[in-house]
């Protein structure tokens, strides 16, 4: 849940952009390369380690977000998984294919795949060892039986919503149990029905996070007038669900009847301050101010439920449990909840359901904050304030002006009337918890959180006057007697500002609000929706009320009442009918206003908020999908509506190839990912992207997506190469707010991707991007003219030695030990049909098989990781494999086998088609059209290195790429698309990772990339983040192990290598931290600073760069609080030729190149540089003569004959006085 103590909404993670490929596991040295998924999450990971973040999804798949904005997606088995990645606005969703049917069926919460949200809310594996969920059941019997799917435990029962809070383990067990071993969705698709969960589970939600959202303000709402009559709320039970309470505060002493904490591991004590402030606003006695700073109902009895942690956040299930406790166990008449979600809600979520259910069951009144997202515009009411039964509270200042932060209606989806009322919420003075910063007994806070307890206190005063009233009656009375605020409409400020004096002294009340729903004038031209308004008279004499509409945006003659005057009997009720003639309404408009009930003297005695929407009712869009073979095509249909940031709809197409969707009218972009026949016969699999960029829906319609006319998106390489990874992005904008990038990475089971041609859309942007990594084939098998080009090397196995050979093949049936009896398979190729590979591989090894070919038994390539084995194992598709088996049954077959265990070359291609998708979607560059990159992997003791290259597509906030497992200290030639933006990185699994900056290559050019070469030391680049100051806050990321590659920065896996940072202002230590990330508040003004970075690693593992110390001295001034200013640090780069092990000649030429970080402030020029060297690890030093050249400062070494290593100490200074000094112990070896 979201705490709302101030105008600022929570700090969200930066846009997590797009994901793509899955990483190759660190198995055998020659495993098949694969793809890696990336997400931009720079601001989501300011940790002390500067390392990556792992999020285990509900499916058991793992998403790993790195500090450079990359994300890897791996299955529970550690293997790559196909993932749909959708970026909507600033939020990115990563959907494994297994989850999509349940998301589209509406039984699985989309937030469970919102990587932006999960990172921002601390739901990564480092912060929680389980995934918090709320499970609702189809029937109460499942709830009572506590049939929790395997892999999860029940945290608490939430029977108000027929559900439970559960904690799911970080494994695939829960998902397997929930989906009946993965069979539920395929079975539903085969039966042409929507999928459902096993174990009686109706829906699974993320147990999301919620944040917590006086003297003059109490007088503002008329409370002193009520006190003067003797009503202080005495005897009324008010529950405050918040961050707890400081029970020792003088204003709350003796006022707390009971308390309970629903936050695991925390007592009810308020160490945040929000709950104490709220509780004292409700019922504080003012004892700490001699009675001056009283709460609204100082005589009420408080029941404190701690549902938000000391950090001000809580989970949905904590809040629901607190609501059940307050309403049922404590019998609270009023429940005050100054909390809510940041995201807008439609009132159907678990918390809203609980509010409605508990209100109906107990009669309690839930008073809930509207939220603090008003600056984001309309439709910003969060949960649980979106609940029908909630009395939802906005905020005004001391002059009844609406606070700019106060969330506005209408409610999401149905345009219902919210909020209902406002109260003072700006600069509210109330009790300060002694456990929070500050002095004195009181503090000032702003937010709808502060407005809410004013209304809760008012409800307590009113309940004391009318102890038999239900929560609904209290709500009607407070809302219908609120002070009118005519400058604001009901969707902004409800009925007006609460006036407790009018409510308690009044005798006439009306229905609080009357919403007539959404109606379509075109489909219901004669529609006249109605609602009944009820007027209640608590007085001893009848009252005549004149009824009229206020001067709002209600059109003349559109609204009518069954009577313009009504007589309400003493202690009785009268009703009138409100109706709206929608033939007089504008289409696509939400109307709101108030019905005023005035007495004989013209005074407004009561008023009712009314509203109706003419948003069109949904139309039916029927989508029929046909595959390349003319048969129905299953898959996922996406529909995005123009101008609607929330208007993204999914539907899963079953094997019928048909989907029937109800959608709001509008202009849509529709696209579908569907499974089709691939390029290798009927049993091969391809993926088709079929799109209709402009679909105008103004009534029921049919859309045909026919893949029989689709064209293959393919890349043709100058030299033979096989697909290692393929990704396709669909990017579309419609209007100012509807924007999406949908990225799909082909699973290894697919052999091709297809798309249809389109016209350029009349509105918005359209682009399709294809990304390929194509490699020299690891293994090739031929038989005469028959080439088995769809052969796939299974990960976990080895590869044959480099070279070519002709090998006899044998057919060994099912591949069991018995199948090899009587067959001479030693040194041969064994061909078998797929079975239990855990038994088939050992049987082949025992038989002496040289190469094992497994024929898949279903469509597509076989995707199955092996237990580690030295045997080379590859799969054949069903069609090709059965043809080979048939030939083997006819007679001897000799296969020509070629192996390349170390890839000597590869192609990284990217191609974007903008505006329209043509028929020809083939990318066929010539050799001269490409750029050549010579890549070396050096100076690392590991046997293997994972290397990645990302394409940075213009206009897309994405970092996407492909993985290649390479030998350390090896060489490879890469051919890449020219003029595209690229970013690379290389990783030693479980040890360290190097990040390269963005770069573009010219056609025909040759560049060099070196990984893990000396001299490794702290180095900063834009891939990880540049040091900056915002206001008087400094944030620095210093990667500790940058190598000699151009613009590289290197990070260690947490726990593997030691690093620390310290920041000094002058000689005073500001802060220090372990790891490569530092954040600190610094004194205002311009002052001198020193940043010190130290690193150290084990000499037994890493012979070079054992220890480093870097001191940056610089001057920094207060920066713009809204715009970060980069710090003027100087970077040091080194150039020296070394061998593969990192050793240089004793008279080697060494270049020192100082430079300012890119994009920094004007710091003049580098005016001097110095270099000292040591050949005894720093015991003695020798000053080197430096000659300045175009490349930097150059010197030549003169190492003694017995020296084994060079240690260096380099310095540089600019004309503004900024400087750097860097010491690297054993920077290089000497030969």
Total number of helices = 16
Strand order of the largest sheet: 7-6-43-42-45-54-59-56-63
Q: Strand pairing plus helix content: what structural class?
A: mainly beta
Mean pLDDT level: 89
What kind of sheet is the major sheet? 9 strands, mixed
Distance between the termini: 62 Å
Q: From the alpha carbons, calculate the radius of gyration and give it in angstroms.
A: 34 Å
Q: What is the helix content?
A: 10-25%
Q: What are the segments in which pLDDT stays under 50 over at least 5 consecutive residues?
A: 1-50
CATH superfamily of the domain at 211-470: Peptidase S8/S53 domain
Backbone shape: globular
The CATH architecture designation of the domain at 211-470 is 3-Layer(aba) Sandwich
Task: Explain the overall architecture.
The protein is mostly beta strands. Among the domains are: 79 residues, Alpha-Beta Plaits, CATH 3.30.70; 260 residues, 3-Layer(aba) Sandwich (Rossmann fold), CATH 3.40.50.200; 110 residues, Immunoglobulin-like, CATH 2.60.40.10; 121 residues, Glucose Oxidase, domain 1; 203 residues, no CATH class. Helix content is 11%, strand content 39%. The protein has 16 helices and 81 strands. The strands form 16 sheets. A nine-stranded mixed β-sheet has the order 7-6-43-42-45-54-59-56-63. Strands 67, 68, 70, 71, 74, 76, 77, 80 and 81 form a nine-stranded mixed β-sheet that branches. The protein has an eight-stranded mixed β-sheet with strand order 47-46-53-49-50-51-52-48, with helices on one face. Strand 6 and strand 7 form a beta hairpin. The protein is globular, with a radius of gyration of 34 Å. The chain starts with a strand and ends with a strand.
